[in-house]
Design a protein that fits this description.
Layout lengths: L5 E7 L4 H13 L5 E7 L2 H8 L8 H18 L7 H9 L3 H13 L4 H14 L7 H10 L4 H10 L3 H16 L7 E6 L2 E6 L4 H7 L3
Parallel strand pairs: 1-2
Antiparallel strand pairs: 1-3, 3-4
Protein name: Glutathione S-transferase kappa 1
Keywords: Transferase
Pfam families: DSBA
């Protein structure tokens, strides 16, 4: 048996549908594999901008394919992700910066809520098609994830602090440093060397490389 647990870092943003799929798959494997799963909320737009990447759906054929692909994957993994053509526009028009700062504030102070909180943001954005840029919506999502109104309010106040803003920025820069150009970006160290896996469909390959 292997000693020690393998650290698996998941860089994600809740506007990314493939991040949700990758998140759910890794959440399931964390109970089966000898891994420590570390959630790293980051800002997708920052990664795209730094690397000159463009939203995949800007290529119409790719957009058409993505809708079918997301639908198939959502069914396969049993994740209630409902994507439509309008969502590509929604990603560009709704600001997710507040949401990702809120999740970052939770990561810094209440990490035990990180998994349910992130999931509720995805459900809100991708299952219920809600506007996660609204303060009221963010607080409702937090309550849904089991946070007390007091705690949710505290995290909300933290989102405007330089500490939280810098942390999100640093995590995003870290993802870029590992070679990320989109999300999800999954990083694992093999013999001390960081290996980057992009997307939600490389988890079996990741498992094989870490000896699972």
């Amino acid at each position: 048996t292997r000693m020690g647990r393998t650290l698996v870092e998941l860089f994600y943003d809740v506007v990314s549908p493939y991040s949700w799929l990758g998140f759910e798959v890794l959440c399931r494997y964390q109970h089966v594999w000898n891994i420590d799963l570390r959630f790293r909320p980051a800002f997708l737009a920052g990664v795209m901008q730094a690397t000159g990447n463009k939203p995949p759906a800007m290529l119409p054929k790719r957009g058409e394919y993505m809708l079918k692909d997301i639908k198939r994957m959502a069914e396969y993994y049993q994740v209630p992700l409902q994507a439509s053509k309008d969502d590509f526009q929604r990603i560009l028009s709704i600001s997710n910066l507040g949401a990702m700062r809120f999740i970052t504030a939770a990561a810094m102070t209440e990490p035990q809520y990180l998994e349910p909180l992130s999931r509720e943001f995805w459900i809100s954005f991708w299952s219920q098609h809600e506007d996660i840029s609204q303060t009221e919506k963010i607080l409702a999502i937090a309550r849904q994830a089991g946070l007390s109104p007091e705690l949710a309010q505290k995290l909300l106040e933290m989102t405007s602090s330089p500490t939280v803003k810098n942390q999100l920025k640093e995590t995003t820069e870290e993802a870029i440093k590992y070679g990320a150009f989109g999300m999800p970006a999954i990083v694992v160290r093999v013999n001390g060397e960081p290996q980057l896996f992009f997307g939600s469909d490389r988890v079996e390959l990741l498992g094989s490389i870490i000896g699972e």
